[in-house]
Amino acid sequence: MLNPLMLLGLLGLGVPVLIHLINRRRMRPRPLATLEFLDQQDVANVFAPVPRDVWQLLLRLLLLSLFVLLMARLTGPSAAVGPRAVAIVMDNSMSMKRPIPDGKTALFESQRARILELVRGMKPGDYFSFTLAGDKTFASTGFTGDRAALERCVTNAWISDGGGRGLYPAIEDGLRELRSRRAPNTALIVFSDQQLRNYRSHLENSTLAPLLRGSRIKPVFVVDPVTNGPNVELKGAEFHPEKTYLGASGKVTARLHNASETQQVVTVALKSGPVTLETRPCNLASGETAHVEIRQMFESPNDTAWGVSLSEDGFPADNDAYATMRMLKRRQVLLVTSARYPKPEGLTLGTSGADLFSCAVNPAEATGEARGETFISVKRVPVTDLERKALSMYSVVVLYGLEELASPDVVQDLAGYVRQGGGLYLIPDAAVVSSTFNRELAPLLSGFQLGDLREPKLAAPLDDNEKNVADPLLSKLIRGEWGTINDILFARYFDTLEQGNTRAALKTRDGDILLAVAEMGKGRVCIQTHSWNVEDTSLPRSLSFVGVAHAVLDRLSRPDADTEGDDRPDHIQAGAFHRMMLSQFRGLGGEVTLEGPRTYSFKIAPEDAHITVKDIYVAGAYRATHSGKTAARDRWLAVNPSPEESAAEFITADQLTDLCGGVRATATSDQLDGLFRPRRELLAPLLALVFAALAAETAGGAFLRRRRTD
Amino acid sequence: MANGNTNSLTIDPRLLERLKGIELKSRFLVRGFYENRHRTRDFGASNEFIEHRDYQQGDDIRRIDWRVFARTNRLFVKRFEMEANMRVHFILDTSDSMRVPAEDRRPTKLDLAACITGAVAMMAVSQQDSVGLFCIGDRMEEAIPARQGMRHLAQLYQHLGAPRGRGGGNFGEVAWEVMRRLGRRGVTFLLTDALDPLDPIFETLKGLMVREQDVTLLQVLDETELTFPFDKMTEFRHPESGRRIMGDPLALRARYLARLEAHQERIRAFCHQQGVDYLRVHNGDDLITLLSSHFLQRLVRRSIRC
User: Fold this and answer.
1) Domain carrying residue B139
2) Global ipTM
């Protein structure tokens, strides 16, 4: 076997002649005044060709010819196959899980066994490389003669749930490396199910053909038969809604597609871990796509991961999908009332302002009909119990009808609670003594001071001019978006002595402040100059009351530190990049571990609250943990298999031939044994001849030179 | 070492310093116009008494030796030796063979010859002698008559800075013409590479000796011409005839050097036989040492002879 392009090097035989001509043309005559002492006859003798010159020229030409043949890697027949250089590329995309005709073994396993046979058949002088490629190159040994290392690498090869985007680049790399090998027998063997999608974009403009042109590389795309039985693929499963509150229910929607030519009956199962919770049979016509919905109630406060699976079919790899559910935290309001407002018993609904406020916030709870589905609840306690409460559990604390607390320490606790992000809502009633209120609760008022109680002869209407209020908290009320405000009147309220650092959010038409808002540390304080008692105002009886209550509570609520900005569910496809928000690990640094079918670790910077997930190619539900915070809220990442891998569309032999520039390149695993003919490169004899010619030329040249000098 | 090019003449001050104290003498009686220290054949007013002669009418009565008259009662006049200045001529070969560029930034043969001419001319002028210059290419290019004085020397240097001349190959014939214009008695330096036919040159030298000229042949060569150091295939071209020869210098070197040596030997033998001073210099020589020793030896020889 000969590399014909290298024979062009024989043109180099003309190089000595060319150099001579060029040098002759470029030689500048040297002026010499003593030229007469150079005898023309001597010169003629110097240039006269002698047999020695002819032999030297012939030797030089022979040397050049041998060198060209050496570069052309001349090969000759041999008794056994000479040294081999074989690049093995193995596809580990999800489609390689397709079973071979025996119905039990996956194609990946079958082909891996064949590769192991090839590797074990390596002889001294053979150099093999093994590349495992799916969506990217997962492993590559480079060319090595170490059979044990290759066996180890092949044995450790694994199959991903991703696609095969990296297969074609791996084939190109293998060809490039093979071109630099000088073994007489070179081959590139691609073990794959040869899905068309991995080659489609290169069919029009093949980059393999130029690499194969002029080389002796033998491309072999192994095409082994696979079972093409009935298959229903699970294209995905998602929860709706993606996040919910404790006790609420959601539904998971599974998308199924019958890719077989016959009608199929499958069972869709919703699983939590290994436990099957609910199943649903589904009857699908050929080519039909269906959405199957399964309802699930979430009774755990933790985030959870769920699996959806189909019953066994022809291609079991696409029968599983994973989804996560994020649980929202409930909002707790602590309503602290004076003894004047006892909590109603049973189902009785009181008419005091505190009762009306509770009802506006959560009517079902107020009437005793709540079953936990609500996202907000009001806990009502007398002022005497306040100091025993853990304030951090509550989003908002409402002090209704209070002018003083049990002790100054409680006031300080409340102030600290607000500064740490809590919300405080102060609602004095007509029985409150303003001076006592101002004095006792001064640390909570941000400089605001109540004046005397005012009872105008005509109840004061609301100021409907937004320009007169500094805070837009109740702008919807002022604009009448929640209903008319003409019937909202205020018969009794406190004057304002000092506004301090507060901003007015609601005023009477006379300019008296009805509601003021202040920032205090990370939290906020709302101070109302009237109560919700019906004697004081008609607002609780208006349509706008619920809106006002919720607007104020929304503004005051402490943001949930654990879920701020990261309440999205995390689900990706295998191999995808994903920014996973993990606020509970903020400030920890180190590594976040994702535990699932495999374990991965990702670094998290101390100043960040997210990790960048990448290179997860095994589908499943992964739980995020951090060694620095073991009691943190559970977070899950669902990694789903690549949906396109189910397509049973394969490249044809003709297409592969075109891809390789006209070289017939398909074979089955069983045909690999007769891949190489027994040939061996004539390296040693050619080298010996080259050295002999070189030595003869050198000796002859030295001899001639010496004779001439003498 | 002297260095020069076609536009200016540069002489190493150390060379001038070494030559400064060396007297330039002729082995013959000279003929000069101005009074100087060189002996002449004429009678004059120096302190060197030669003879008495009978008084003849018209003789200067101040020359009458009254002491002899008192003893013999006859009138004799005293005759004294006349000392005059010396005319020094330089015949400079400015043909193309003298202009061949030298290697390694060395001076060309013509530069070297001009430098020597300038230095010797300075010697002569500094001892009140006259200097003249003839430049010869394929014909007589310049003829500057011998004169005294620094102004004349400066004019001479201008010409030496850019000596005119081209062609060549007939130095001997043209030098013969020059010789006829020189007259008798003086000092003449021929500066040439002496690579032209030797017979005409030898004839010229003989003619100069006949005219009682103290002749010195200064053969100026390039070092490469003496050693032929080339080792690669080279095409050689004669600067005057344009003839070309290409060959392997390693193969040609031995016979080349043999022929050159024979040529040199012929010149040396002629000069020795005819009493012509001969000095061969090349552009690799230490000119200061070579020239100073040559003129010292010359002075010694002249002094012994006198």
Assistant:
1) 3-31+85-305
2) 0.82
Please give the tally of structural domains in chain B.
2
d(CA B234, CA B245): 8
Contacts of A37 in chain B (CB under 8 A): 256, 259-260, 263
First-to-last CA distance in chain A? 49
Sheet containing A635-640: order of strands:
A570-573, A635-640, A620-626, A591-595, A599-603
The residue of B97, B252, B257, B266 whose CB has the most chain A CBs within 10 angstroms, and thus the best one to mutate to test that interface, is B252
A121 or A426: which carries more pLDDT confidence? Answer: A426
* Contact residues on chain B for A34, CB-CB shorter than 8 A: 195, 225, 256, 260
Quick check: B100 and A31 CB within 8 A? yes
Q: How far is CA B7 from CA B134, B140, B151, B157, B158, in A?
A: 18, 20, 19, 11, 9
* B237: closest CA of chain A, how far (Å): 5
- Average pLDDT score over chain A: 84
Q: Is B150 on the interface with A (CB under 8 A)?
A: no
Question: Residue A264's pLDDT is what?
Answer: 87
Which spans in B183-286 are helix H? 198-210, 223-227, 249-274
Give Cα separations from A219 to A494, A657, A672 (angstroms). Answer: 92, 10, 11
Q: Give yes or no: residues B167 and B247 share one domain.
A: yes
pLDDT of residue A709: 54
Cross-chain residue pair A38–B256, CB shorter than 8 Å: yes
A40 touching B (Cβ < 8 Å) = yes
List pLDDT tens digits, range A119-150: 998 888 889 999 999 999 999 999 999 999 99
The chain A residue lying nearest B262, using CA atoms, is: A37
User: All domains of chain A, ordered by start, with CATH?
Assistant: 4-74 (no CATH), 84-228+648-681 (3.40.50.410), 331-556 (3.40.50.880), 570-640 (2.60.40.420)
Which residues from A are below 8 Å from B263, CB to CB? Answer: 37
Q: Inter-axis angle of helices A353-361 and A545-556, to 10 degrees?
A: 80
User: Of A34, A43, A705, which is closest to B247 when you measure between CB atoms?
Assistant: A43
pLDDT of A399 higher than 60: yes
Assess B68–A contact: CB distance below 8 Å, yes or no: no
Closest Cβ opposite residue A46 in set B97, B224, B252: B252
**In A420-545, at which residue ranges do the beta strands (DSSP E only) sit?**
423-427, 449-454, 460-461, 489-490, 493-498, 503-507, 513-520, 523-528
Residue A51, pLDDT score: 54
Range in A252-266, A274-288, A298-312 the model is least confident about: A298-312
**Structure confidence by residue, pLDDT tens digits, A363-384:** 766 666 555 445 677 888 898 8
In A, which residues are within 8 Å of B169 by CB distance?
none
* B1 touches B287 (CB < 8 A): yes
pLDDT tens digit string along A5-19? Answer: 666 777 777 776 676
What's the pLDDT at B186? 84
CATH number of the domain where residue B255 is located: 3.40.50.410
- For residues B254 and B149, membership in a common domain is answered with yes
